[in-house]
Design brief:
By secondary structure, this protein is α+β, with helices and mostly antiparallel strands. It is 24% helix and 32% strand.
Length: 97
């Protein structure tokens, strides 16, 4: 897994993932690799209307970020997107956005 995650992340960034292309692994393994390999920690958690869990991990120092998605009750998460230039917003968005 340690060597596979960078490849998985680059695949996710290269093109939007479809259900058949998503790379999935145990949540514990993914979270550990994001922490150890990229210094990323959990920043946001959202539940989608269909019950899936969307999580954002980021390293505020380097700006790297990863978004994972997980079906309710499933032990695996799938890498959805990854990128750079993460900024945590500590203010309200304007009402017109």
């Amino acid at each position: 897994m340690k060597f596979l995650l960078p490849l998985l992340l680059s695949t996710c960034v290269a093109a939007p993932a479809t259900a058949q292309e998503m790379q999935c692994a145990s949540r514990l393994a993914v979270v550990a690799q994001l922490a150890e390999g990229y210094g990323e920690s959990l920043k946001t958690v959202s539940t989608l209307n269909d019950g899936r869990l969307l999580e954002t991990y980021a390293n505020e120092g380097t700006g790297s970020w990863t978004i994972t998605i997980q079906k309710a009750g499933e032990p695996e998460v799938c890498l959805l997107l990854a990128g750079n230039n993460f900024v945590m917003m500590n203010r309200a968005l304007p009402p017109n956005l």
